[in-house]
């Protein structure tokens, strides 16, 4: 990227002064050079783990501008990294070297909302929480919710196929996304409008069996096929009654027992079932100042308990209270749960949720966090956390202080385990003790090395643990079909992506 590129890119943007930030000096004073710190937050990820060095950030205001930018980047073979709210956890959304950063920050309009079908059509840069705030007064809600809601963009959610806290109830984005608009990195900067209202062809429909369902390819593509600029998504009705309970159980077998019972007894009103271990709770209490919801702490030397968070959402509070009440009664009576708190008001709902939602933030306050996001049968989940701890103890990494703690938590309802290994520092020795061992251990359990965070830079070399060679080869061909010159997030997502044969 040089001054000529900056001058050209500026000429494509309707508001160049606010839509392009660069540290490259202008030869003729036609733009004001930014200070390096103005680009820092776009060059570094949320965990402070991946650092790039891009001198140019563009924030187009329309799909047409994205198209012009990608067309130019295609012509000049300029590498581009699409970026939403930069909350991704696998190094996918930040440059590795000096790729152009294309942010969706400037595209955050709601295009339309149909209050009969509940279909929302919005720009890709809409912040998840803002979209929720738009929908709530209308009696609707977004079908996904995550701890990063205040920053992540809907385009980023789609590009990572984010799961989150209520996938158990509302399903994955592969089911709720009805239409996608994306710009391709080709010679025309082609705008591909798939089932988008007003985009040509069929609009946002629940049912449309006319050909390959191309929009599905963009869900979880992590910016390797095109830049998502708009979305149509099906939003569910906002429930009028909520309950949240956090329960303490003696062991992981009881977590599974409670899950089975809960699904059986609560049925359609269950909207979340999360778990965290005792190390996780201690970390949150220490680093967020939250109060324990339990009357007593486990005794010194006693087995460490596990915790589950159960949420119900429905339309009849008395009905839901009765169902949850009888579930808790039966679990207490048969000794499956040892302690518990049921939220009495909205403030308590929030504070119980924050015990679970604060885990990533608390881990970040304690140290440098090696994060693993794994899918596997629930029964095999926690043995992996225990094996990890044993491995670190054998290598002396806990004694010498390199690893401060290892915590396990996640979305039990979706078979999704999060392991956060909190280290004193980013440390090659720690990393090599974890990887590829953790991926092998996951594959042995027939699991997936990424349940919801994606591949990014972190897991690109390891996809083979979860996908066969022929499947990877087909994915590589699809990638080249959409991105013939390999300009979108090269070196990420798939193994040896940068060595794929280029076209044109
Ligand atoms: P970014 O981080 O900016 O980008 C993520 C990837 O998508 C990158 O590869 C980027 O190139 C690509 N991308 C972004 N926008 C576009 C676009 N418009 N077009 C094409 N490609 C694009 N994830 C979950 O699944 N479940 C959780 O519960 C969850 N909780 C989280 C909690 C916290 C506190 C944090 C920090 C993260 C959490 N995440 C979770 C991970 C992250 O928030 C999600 O992956 C989120 O969907 C990323 O959105 P973003 O806008 O920040 O994307
Ligand atoms: C969550 O479920 C997120 O809280 C983040 O997916 C998990 O930070 C993590 O490892
Ligand atoms: Zn998660």
UniProtKB/TrEMBL annotation:
Catalytic activity, EC: 1.1.2.4
Coiled-coil stretches: none
Keywords: FAD, Flavoprotein, Oxidoreductase
Record field: catalytic activity: (R)-lactate + 2 Fe(III)-[cytochrome c] = 2 Fe(II)-[cytochrome c] + pyruvate + 2 H(+)
Database matches in Pfam families: FAD-oxidase_C (PF02913), FAD_binding_4 (PF01565)
GO cellular component: mitochondrion
Protein family: Belongs to the FAD-binding oxidoreductase/transferase type 4 family.
Listed name of the protein: Putative D-lactate dehydrogenase (Cytochrome)
Organism this protein belongs to: Rhodotorula taiwanensis
């Amino acid at each position: 990227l040089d001054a000529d590129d900056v001058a050209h890119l500026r000429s494509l943007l309707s508001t160049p002064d606010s839509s392009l930030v660069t540290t490259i000096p202008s030869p003729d004073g036609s733009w004001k050079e930014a200070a390096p710190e103005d680009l820092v937050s776009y060059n570094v990820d949320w965990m402070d783990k991946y650092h790039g060095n891009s001198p140019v950030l563009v924030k187009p205001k329309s799909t047409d501008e994205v198209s012009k930018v990608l067309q130019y980047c295609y012509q000049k073979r300029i590498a581009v990294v699409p970026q939403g709210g930069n909350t991704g956890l696998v190094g996918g959304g930040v440059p590795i070297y000096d790729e152009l950063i294309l942010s969706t920050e400037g595209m955050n309009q709601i295009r339309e909302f149909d209050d009969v079908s509940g279909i929302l059509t919005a720009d890709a840069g809409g912040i998840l929480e803002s979209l929720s705030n738009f929908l709530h007064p209308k009696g609707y809600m977004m079908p996904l919710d995550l701890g990063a809601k205040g920053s992540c963009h809907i385009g980023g959610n789609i590009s990572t196929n984010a799961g989150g806290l209520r996938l158990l109830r509302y399903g994955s984005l592969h089911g709720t996304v009805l239409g996608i608009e994306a710009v391709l990195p080709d010679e025309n900067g082609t705008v591909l409008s798939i089932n988008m209202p007003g985009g040509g062809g069929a609009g946002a429909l629940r049912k449309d069996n006319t050909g390959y369902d191309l929009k599905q390819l963009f869900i979880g593509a992590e910016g390797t096929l095109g830049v998502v600029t708009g979305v149509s998504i099906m939003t569910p009705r906002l429930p009028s009654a909520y309950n949240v309970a956090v329960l303490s159980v003696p062991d992981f077998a009881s977590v599974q027992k409670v899950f089975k019972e809960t699904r059986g007894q609560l049925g359609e009103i269950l909207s979340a079932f999360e778990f965290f271990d005792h190390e996780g709770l201690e970390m949150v209490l220490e680093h967020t100042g939250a109060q324990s919801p339990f009357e007593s702490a486990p005794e010194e030397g006693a087995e460490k308990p596990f915790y589950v968070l159960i949420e119900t959402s429905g339309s009849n509070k008395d009905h839901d209270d009765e169902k949850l009440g009888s579930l808790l009664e039966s679990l207490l009576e048969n000794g499956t749960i040892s302690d518990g708190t049921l939220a009495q008001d909205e403030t308590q709902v929030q504070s119980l949720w924050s015990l679970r939602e604060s885990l990533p933030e608390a881990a970040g306050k304690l140290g440098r966090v090696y994060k693993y996001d794994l899918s596997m049968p629930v029964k095999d989940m926690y043995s992996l956390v225990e094996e990890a701890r044993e491995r670190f103890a054998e290598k002396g990494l806990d004694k010498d202080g390199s690893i401060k703690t290892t915590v396990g938590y996640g979305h039990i309802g979706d078979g999704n385990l999060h392991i956060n290994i909190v280290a004193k520092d980013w440390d090659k020795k720690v990393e090599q003790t974890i990887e590829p061992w953790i991926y092998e251990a996951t594959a042995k359990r027939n699991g997936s090395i990424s349940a919801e965070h994606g591949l990014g830079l972190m897991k690109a070399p390891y996809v083979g643990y979860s996908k066969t060679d022929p499947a990877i080869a087909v994915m590589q061909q699809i990638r080249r079909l959409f991105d013939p010159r390999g300009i979108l997030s090269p070196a990420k997502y798939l193994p040896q992506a940068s060595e794929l044969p280029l076209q044109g």
